[in-house]
Amino acid sequence: MHAKKATTVYLDYRESDCAHQTVQSYQYRLAKFEDWWGDRPIGEMSKQDVHEWKQYLNDQDLAKPTIKSHIDTLRGFLEYMARLDYVDDDLVDVADSPTLSKGENVRDDEVEADVAQAILERLDRFDYASMRHTLVLLLWRTGMRTGAVRGLDLDDYNPDEQYLSLEHRPERDTPLKNQGEGERMVAISEETCRILDDYIDEKRVETTDEHEREPLLTTKHGRIARNTVRKWCYRLTRPCWFSGECPHGRELDECRGSVERSDNYSYECPSSVAAHAFRRGSITHFLRNDMPETVVSDRANVSTDVLDKHYDRRNEKEKMEQRRDYLDNI
């Protein structure tokens, strides 16, 4: 059995006991493994191969938590393959997961404000009011989770009062992470509304989904898919896309993840990040611009404890200097 068939068998198995987004995460990580393994039968995998896969990940300039997630996914895959007698049982022993020290389980991927601005400026100039432009605009300016952005319908946008209404609709494939407690109205600026209006009037593909709803963000296949959100975030955060330069010293015509070669391997760029990095960067940008933590917490639907641990990328000196501004009023 070749790798692609084997991973399909494993993902079908996991569909029965995992959330859809979790299975998609497994699919993304195993796709990277498939590319590396190639056309060889999965039954030929040896302990040395598992070791070389781990070494390959270490050589990709990936963060330690990212490496851990890839190895953990492979371990689960090999465990199931061993149960089906497709691979040797002892391969799992080699796929041991790296131990993270305190604090290393907090991910650092973040779209910085200047990067977000550069991406939006290029989209505004060359791809104005497209689905991609609108997607990045909403991710950056609202700080919403990707599932919330994906779940928006046309009727959830109120152009007159300039806000988006978020609703938990699990029975229709658009749940909110915090369920009913995640329902809220998110104010948006006049400029954001202008671009949204132009997208709806000129670029949006008119369609309904399988539940007869009219999604806000659409493709010719209907509501924007989770994989499509992930794909475009990886593509658009490559420095060679928005600046034409590579900060990693790579030759663009030789780098498989560059705009010169293919969009299909954009995730191989060390600077490209997943969609959640827009949320982390957006929240940090709000805080650096003196938006009170309670306001950010309500707007982004995240507790202040989680906000401080997982999203706030300000250093202690930045926080001190922002507090200093209030001293003259005491």
TrEMBL record:
Chain ranges of the Tyr recombinase domain: 106-324
Annotated ranges, domain Core-binding (CB): 1-82
SUPFAM superfamilies cross-referenced by the UniProt entry: DNA breaking-rejoining enzymes
Alphabetical list of Gene3D superfamilies matching this protein: 1.10.150.130, Intergrase catalytic core
Keywords noted in UniProt: DNA integration, DNA recombination, DNA-binding
CDD domains, per database record: DNA_BRE_C
Pfam families registered for this protein in UniProt: Phage_int_SAM_1, Phage_integrase
Annotated PANTHER family: INTEGRASE_RECOMBINASE PROTEIN MJ0367-RELATED, PHAGE INTEGRASE-RELATED
Annotated protein name in UniProt: Site-specific integrase
